[in-house]
Amino acid sequence: MFKVTPNPPGSPGNSDKSSKTKKLDEAAERVLDYYLNPKPTDEASGKTQTAQLFMVAPDIDTETLLANASEDLLSISAIAADLADDVDGSRRSVILAISRMADGVHLLVERAMDRLEVQAAG
C-alpha cells in the first residue's frame, strides 16, 4: 500500500543556507556597485565634482603664477627653436612660428609682472 506524505518541512540547515546565500548576494552586489558604479567622492561632502585633471592651487599669488608662466614660455620657445634646427620645409616654418608666438606671449607676461611690481611699489 502506498501512503501519501506531504513535503517535509524545511530543515534548519536549509534556512541557514538561504541566509548565507542572501548575504553572499548582497556582498556581490556591493562589490559590483563599487567597481562598476562608483560614486563620486565629493558627493558625500556636498561638493560638485569637476572634470579637471590638473588644478592650480587657489592660494598662489599672481606674481608667482606669472613667473612660472614666463619660465614655461621660455622653455617652450627653446624647445621649438631647437626642434626647428632638425627639420626643413614647411615643418620648420610651423615650429618657428610656435617659438615666436611663445616669445610674444612671454613678453606679455613680463609686462604684466612689471606692472605688478609698479603697483606693489606705489
UniProtKB/TrEMBL annotation:
**Source superkingdom:** Bacteria
Q: Name one Pfam family in it.
A: DUF6124
Extent of Pro residues compositional bias: 1-11
- Region span, Disordered: 1-24
Quote the protein name from its UniProt record.
Answer: DUF3077 domain-containing protein
Source species:
Pseudomonas ogarae (strain DSM 112162 / CECT 30235 / F113)
